[in-house]
Design a protein that fits this description.
Radius of gyration of chain A: 20 Å
Distance between the termini of chain A: 60 Å
CATH architecture of the largest domain in chain B: Up-down Bundle
Strand content of chain B: 5-15%
Number of strands of chain A: 0
Largest sheet of chain B: 4 strands, parallel
Order of helices and strands of chain A: HHHHHHHHH
Distance between the termini of chain B: 55 Å
Helix content of chain B: 40-55%
Structural class of chain A: mainly alpha
Helix content of chain A: over 70%
Largest sheet of chain A: none
CATH superfamily of chain A: Transmembrane di-heme cytochromes, Chain C
Oligomer: heterodimer
CATH architecture of chain A: Up-down Bundle
Structural class of chain B: alpha/beta
């Protein structure tokens, strides 16, 4: 019965702790940066900084494609892999059928979920993309220089989550299933705890960083 | 104490501590957001002209990646502003900076970055790497580690009034020469609405730009003048990121402009001059800096829009454009030069799909005066030349004399036959032919 006890522990107190830790950690990191303050800028803006800041938060990821030909030639794997990975990982986290009950427990209602076939396709493409992106990090000289333990650990953790999720769904049964699903949830809980302590928190800083980018674009009166 | 920036050969613990403290005290919400947001994707490398230039030569130098340039600053930020970083520091696992690390920072921040802002555009997180490099430059300058040539030029600017040593007598004699040679009237120290401040690069190396600006201003019939107190537009304080030098050089302009009752300052064809007067000066003198600041190209376009300037004659068959990063991408003057060139050139062929995509000359940010950066500047020129070759035009209009100097030099060094022309020279020619 140790397998069920382990499952109950991960599914219950550990996941709850992870979620509290995540929200507290992310709030702390966000607020800490906000409270550092800003100097007042007396230079008259040439455009509308606030409008540009809002526009860029909404559109910046798509506008990077304006450099597509030049950058894609050297970084195709990152563009395609990055897109498929984010689509798969985020799609699965929020909209896979097996997570619907979990979201109901966390936020009080069930999120709409995708057909299983779509979920499977997303899972395989995310896993393959993550593998390709990791290999790319190992061999591309620029990425090799920029990559630290943080990135490799995060990739390993996320890879484990997707892989065990797939195993649990398609390739395991009986007693093994409980261990696999426990491992899936354990790696998920570790990831949730790890996010506020790592660069995986970039999704929060995106809003700040791009806000300032857009603000400066508006201040200088350029469009991009 | 005399205001100076230093170039030290020896790096001791004192320099390291000064560097560290300046980096630490430069953190604010904007800077921290950029430092936190980097996802280590390295896409910025593909936008950096120094990295691109190496690539064109068949080499890869990953250390030229913009994100990497801010790594030491990022480490200093983390160990002072994050829980995990503070804990590591308390356990003795904090940032260890060696003299060689600071020497490397000089290469990364001064020799291989012109703060052109192209990487910011490619970055999916919008990280303003020039802003981070500016902090590194400021910290290195505070530690006395300014590259020798740049330190010399900056100190000459403070002592004599111009990085090329143009003091007031030299300024007046050059103006006399230009006035005689190009037969143009140039008012000096008169009460006026407009103050035109040339850069010493124009005065000494491209004097026709000064003559052309004078011709256009006279043609427009506006009330304008030069000033002996505000006779230098460039601000080497921005290159070294020395707040004291920036302030002193701007103070001279403030005094000169106030004395002559100026309403609008016309910044010359010089990137950092425009940047310093338009975006920095209001923050250095928040209460006193009440002037409108226009780049000369911006001013010409305004005159065109108001119908005061008419340009109909074509003075060149075909031409392309080199954008000054500090006036264009970081200054918002991108449409103006294009519209003017369409009026005065038989055919204007843009070398980029959209203006913000243009590539820096490779000599901005003080790089052109640093001999130790020559290798990188020449490599960077390859990325620029590739654009010119793609568009297939040999004549290139410029609206920054520093760019023109760097491009001329790069073109000569690599045996290319491009012809770089000042945009204001072309406009003056178009007026003469009318």
């Amino acid at each position: 019965m140790i397998d069920v006890k382990a499952y109950d522990f991960v599914r219950g107190p550990l996941l709850e702790f992870a979620l509290y830790f995540f929200f507290a950690g992310m709030t702390y990191r966000f607020v800490r940066v906000i409270f550092l303050g800003l100097p007042k800028d007396y230079a008259k803006p040439k455009g509308n900084p606030l409008a540009k800041a809002v526009e860029k938060i909404a559109l910046k990821p798509t506008q990077g494609w304006r450099f597509f030909i030049e950058v894609f030639a050297h970084r195709g794997i990152q563009y395609v892999g990055g897109f498929l990975f984010h689509l798969g990982f985020l799609g699965l986290t929020f909209f896979v059928p097996q997570h619907a009950f979990l979201w109901k427990e966390i936020i009080g209602f069930e999120l709409p979920y995708m057909p299983q076939l779509v979920a499977d396709i997303l899972a395989y493409s995310a896993l393959l993309s993550l593998f390709a992106l990791t290999v790319h990090r190992v061999f591309n000289p620029v990425l090799k220089l920029l990559t630290g333990k943080d990135e490799y650990f995060a990739n390993f953790l996320i890879g484990t989550i997707i892989f065990t999720g797939l195993l649990a769904m398609r390739w395991s049964g009986g007693g093994v299933y409980v261990w696999i699903i426990t491992l899936h949830m354990l790696s998920g809980a570790i990831l949730i705890i790890y996010i506020p302590m790592s660069r995986l928190s970039h999704f929060v800083y995106y809003f700040l960083s791009v806000f300032f980018y857009g603000w400066n674009v508006g201040k200088r009166g350029v469009s991009f | 104490m005399t205001l100076r920036v230093e170039h030290k050969e020896q790096i001791t613990q004192e320099e390291i501590e000064t560097f560290y403290e300046v980096c630490k005290s430069s953190i604010n919400t904007e800077v921290a957001s950029y430092l936190e947001a980097c996802v280590r994707c390295g896409l910025c490398a593909e936008a950096c002209l120094f990295y691109m230039g190496e690539n064109i030569s068949g080499k890869i130098d990953p250390s030229l990646t913009p994100a990497y340039k801010a790594d030491l600053l990022r480490d200093i930020y983390k160990e002072n502003y994050t829980l995990w970083g503070r804990l590591k520091k308390a356990l003795g696992l904090g940032v260890k900076i060696e003299p060689k690390d600071l020497k490397e920072q000089v290469r990364l921040a001064f020799y291989t970055c012109t703060m052109c802002d192209r990487c910011t555009k490619v970055c999916p997180m919008g990280i303003d790497t020039p802003r981070l490099v500016a902090i590194l430059r400021s910290a290195l300058t505070s530690a006395g580690l300014v590259p020798e040539d740049l330190a010399e030029a900056t100190n000459t600017a403070v002592e004599k009034g111009s990085p090329l040593g143009v003091d007031v007598p030299t300024f007046l004699s050059r103006i006399d020469f230009i006035s005689d040679e190009w037969e143009v009237e140039i008012p000096v120290d008169k009460k006026a609405d407009y103050l035109y401040i040339p850069s010493s690069i124009e005065l000494m190396k491209y004097p026709s730009s000064v003559a052309s600006t004078a011709k256009v201003l006279n043609h427009l019939g506006v009330s304008w003048t030069l000033s002996t107190k505000a006779h230098e537009a460039t601000n080497f304080g921005l290159f070294t990121q020395s707040k004291e030098v920036v302030k002193e050089l701007l103070r001279r302009i403030l005094v000169g402009a106030k004395e002559l009752g100026i309403r609008t300052i016309i910044a010359p064809e010089c990137g950092h001059a425009y940047q310093s007067m338009r975006f920095v000066a209001p923050n250095v003198f928040p209460e006193e800096w009440s002037f409108e600041v226009l780049n000369v190209v911006e001013f010409l376009y305004k005159m065109l829009e108001e119908g005061k300037l008419k340009l109909g004659r074509k003075v060149i068959e075909e031409i392309t454009l080199h954008d000054s990063c500090q006036i264009g991408r970081r200054g918002g003057v991108l449409k103006e030069p294009r519209e003017i060139l369409k009026l005065i050139a038989g055919e204007f062929k843009d070398s980029v799909e959209f203006p913000e995509k243009n590539i820096c000359c490779g000599g901005g940010g003080g790089v052109v005066v640093e001999h130790d950066a020559d290798y990188h500047r020449q490599k960077a020129f390859l990325a620029k030349a590739e654009l010119f070759d793609k568009v297939g035009v040999k004549s290139v209009a410029c609206y920054c004399a520093n760019c023109m100097l760097a491009l001329d030099r790069g073109s000569r060094e690599l045996n290319r036959d491009y012809r770089f022309v000042s945009l204001i020279d072309l406009v003056a020619e178009a007026i003469e032919e009318e």
